[in-house]
Specification:
Length: about 130
């Protein structure tokens, strides 16, 4: 039964909800019902929200697959914390104006590291645990 992935997914869901509410609030304040209406702040918030939605689900799938294949809990926790930190740093960095580029880069580097390590680890564990063909 998965243990680490649900905790990481729950924390990331709360961050996603926070990013969603930021977009909704600005829509209400600026009376923007669709798209960004050329509003630079709305564009920024939409991209922060969208970028999170683009990268996070795939990383969580990798985390779950690793957990289901029996990866050590501490390795999953490290990857999960890296993902949470990376997505948080990226969201904060891109949300600022002017944008502190080093936070955006650090956030994406951590996210990419989770995707790379998670992907390679999934392949390795799958090959190590492959069924014996008779």
């Amino acid at each position: 039964m998965p243990f680490v992935t649900p905790i990481v997914a729950g924390l990331l869901a709360l961050l996603y909800l926070f990013l969603s509410v930021r977009v909704i609030r600005l829509r209400g304040q600026e009376r923007i019902s669709l798209s960004d209406a050329g509003n630079a702040e709305m564009q920024r918030r939409i991209r922060v929200h969208g970028n999170f939605a683009e990268y996070t689900p795939f990383a969580l799938v990798l985390l779950l697959l690793l957990e289901l294949q029996g990866a050590p809990w501490w390795y999953l926790a490290v990857l999960g914390l890296m993902l949470l930190a990376g997505r948080s740093l990226h969201a904060y960095g891109v949300s600022q104006n002017p944008e502190p580029l080093q936070l955006r880069i650090a956030g994406m580097a951590m996210t990419f590291a989770v995707l790379a390590l998670g992907g390679l680890s999934c392949i390795i564990l799958a090959l190590m645990n492959r069924p014996v063909l008779t």
